[in-house]
Amino acid sequence: MKILVTDGHGVEHEVEATDGWTVMEMIRDAGLPIKAECGGSCVCATCHVLVDPDWFDKLPEKGEEEIDMLDLALEVFDNSRLSCQIEFEPSMDGLKVTLAPDAIM
Amino acid sequence: MSDTTHQTDVIIVGAGPVGLFAVFELGLLGLKSHLVDILDRVGGQCAELYPEKPIYDIPGIPVCTGQELTDQLMAQIAPFGPQFHLSEMAEELTKLDNGHWRLKTDVGTVLEAPVLVIAAGGGSFVPKKPHLPGIEDFEDGSVFYAVRQMEKFRDRDVLVAGGGDSALDWFIALQPIAKSIALVHHRDGFRAAPHSVEAMREIVATGKGQLHIAQMKGIEGDAPNLTGVQLESKETGAFTHACDMLLPFYGLTMKLGPVAEFGINLEQNLIPVDTEKFETNVPGIFAIGDINTYPGKLKLILSGFHEAALMSQAAFRLARPGERLRFQYTTSSSALQKKLGVR
């Protein structure tokens, strides 16, 4: 299983996906330059990603905490998510996300 | 500005949990510490990011919040009388002829000591800056990330950006003195405290202030003087909001900052250290906690505590050359118990 992550230069990376890991953890583990400053506690908004529109509605909805914390992201779009709050499951195989500028180291 | 020079045994950059615990370990060995932190309170990430979130992996403490851990560490180190220099950024480091370090902060405080410990975590907390082309040229002229003097905003057209407590608090506080006030936020929902949201809505409902549900797209004006901010909303498309002051409040992010200029080796913004003393490539400068790296490093508070203990042994040898280091346990040593004020 894999996810596809586009970095700040527009380059797409294939990242190995693991059931139960968060998307942030997989991106970080792959060595891509994601800030994720708070380490996944949903308190900093620096793991902000833009989810491919075709995938957005297939993901579990944002929780209250994530909606609140997105207020600290610099530019929020309809497809904005915090990648530490997306827990991967096999149905997400092939998920496409792009690192938002405020998430890039 | 302060022109006093403080002499101490150890200067600690960063007053997060690891910097605080270092005071304890150094204190047991009779060493005094001064701490510098850019935040206005102690606790580092624990106090700034997760004061109310639970931590479950502190040995012997099944659960505590970031703030509780900070409070307990402050109680634990109180007997050693640490000196804090808060809301100050460690800016300039020089080596003196006697081999000691002189650290100057951005407000002019000068600290001198034989040992420098960097416990700066992910770096300095600095405001997140909106990605608007050319915004840097307006900073401190008409774009501010904090309000130091409210008078600066009197009779000005102020735009506040964000949806958290800082944004709403300043929208409410500046409304009576500003010529005009407006708030821009990406959604019609706010993470700020409910009573602040209510007060903001009252101001908007009575026409004393404006609320734009929109994105900021650009700034207009002749730097550093702002004339307007370009906004884009789903309903009305792109438009310019006329204003001469912009206050973005999007929380904080971490940047390594001036530590990068201290002449210490860096590896991807981390400081490589040995695992015997947690010393950097520069003798007399140590790095502990999240900011250091070594084979097997884990960014855990408990690892930082261990690093602080070993660093302290080496710091003693530098600060007290010629003296013998007596290794003792707090349980049995009356000398240590005296230092702790329990005997």
Task: Tell me what you see in this structure.
- The complex is a heterodimer of chains A (105) and B (343).
- With 105 residues, chain A is an alpha+beta fold.
- Chain A has a five-stranded mixed sheet.
- In chain A, strand 1 and strand 2 form a beta hairpin.
- The radius of gyration of chain A is 12 Å and the shape is globular.
- The N and C termini of chain A lie far apart (26 Å).
- With 343 residues, chain B is an alpha/beta fold.
- Chain B is 22% helix and 28% strand.
- In chain B, helix 1 runs parallel beside helix 3 and helix 4 crosses helix 5.
- The two termini of chain B are 40 Å apart.
- Chains A and B meet through helix 3 of A and loops of B.
Please summarize what this structure is.
The complex is a heterodimer of chains A (105) and B (343). Chain A is of the alpha+beta class and 105 residues long.
How many helices of chain B? The count is 7
Structural class of chain B: alpha/beta
Greatest interface and its residue counts? A-B, 21 and 26 residues
N to C succession of SSEs of chain A = EEHEHHEE
Instruction: Supply the helix-strand structural class of chain A.
Output: alpha+beta
The Cα radius of gyration of chain A reads 12 Å
| Beta-strand share of residues of chain B | 25-35%
Low-confidence stretches of chain B: none
Biggest sheet overview of chain B: 5 strands, parallel
Q: Let me know the average pLDDT of chain B.
A: 96
Largest sheet of chain A: 5 strands, mixed
Strand order of the largest sheet of chain A: 2-1-5-3-4
Terminus-to-terminus distance of chain A: 26 Å
